[in-house]
Amino acid sequence: MSAPIRQSFVLLLVLAVFGMLTACGPSNNVRLLYNPSTTSVLPQPQAPRVAVVMFDDQRPHQMIGERKDGSVFTSTSTVTDWISRSLADELSRQGMQVSYATTMAQAQSGNPEYIVTGTVTDVWLKENSATNVTATIRATVKLANRKGVIYSENLTASQDKQFIPSATAVESLLSETLRDLLVPAAKKLESKIQ
Fold first, then answer.
1. How sure is the predictor about 108, in pLDDT bands with cuts at 50, 70 and 90?
2. How far apart are CA 76 and CA 28, in angstroms?
3. Which residue has the higher pLDDT, 12 or 20?
4. For strand 56-57 and strand 49-53, is the pairing parallel, antiparallel, or unpaired?
5. Which of 177, 182, 163 is CA-nearest to residue 124?
6. Which of 83, 173, 164, 171 is nearest to 134 (CA)?
7. CA distances from 60 to 63, 66, 80, 120 (A)
8. Do 116 and 143 contact (CB within 8 A), yes or no?
9. Residues 6 or more apart whose Cβ sits within 8 Å of residue 61
10. Model confidence pLDDT, tens digit, residues 143-164
């Protein structure tokens, strides 16, 4: 093989590999997934009944992040539903009888002993480089009994991760960041309930 042909072949090979890495890199559309760190626990019959109401969305924008090239990350589902349902799942893992409601009226109609509400103030991905992304989630959670609010807290979790570009890397990062936010929150809520 002559030198110019070899150089052309190497150049094509490098471009093909770069193209494959780009195609395998994070998509602008991010699936919102939640992977719990523990297995589910069946609630005891006398366990407290808790309703989690879908959180309010107080984010300043609907996108969930920005890529290095200026394009935006968007979610394939509702951010508030993702966070609220994931919190309900974590509370169930604490052994409580948990229901999920999309509105306060729906939650109250079940006459639970406790109602959890909240607001989502930030879900943000920042692509720092092709292999580094920062994820930040901020929310407020409130716990009320039949007399009123008994606990309120602002929650924040952030992670900065290096990874090999892939379609699932950003989804995993967001899931892990949400778990860092919700696991301690669920334990605090459980301590206030019991």
1. very high
2. 10
3. 12
4. unpaired
5. 177
6. 173
7. 9, 14, 13, 10
8. yes
9. none
10. 999 999 999 999 999 999 998 8
Indicate the residue type of 27: S
- What is the per-residue pLDDT across 50-89, written as a single tens digit (0 to 9) for each? 999 999 999 999 999 999 999 999 999 999 999 999 999 9
Q: Position 26: which residue type?
A: P
How far apart CA 40 and CA 94 sit, in angstroms, is 8
Question: Nearest Cα to 40, choosing from 103, 111, 88?
Answer: 88
**Tokens 């699936």 belong to residue:** 31
Cα(4)–Cα(177) distance, rounded to whole angstroms? 50
Residue found under tokens 């409130």: 142
What is the residue type of 189? L
Q: Which residues pair with 132 in a beta bridge?
A: 129, 162
DSSP state, residue 55: P
Of the ranges 27-41, 52-66, 171-185, which one carries the lowest mean pLDDT score?
27-41
Q: Which residue has the tokens 């509702």?
A: 78
pTM check: above 0.85: no
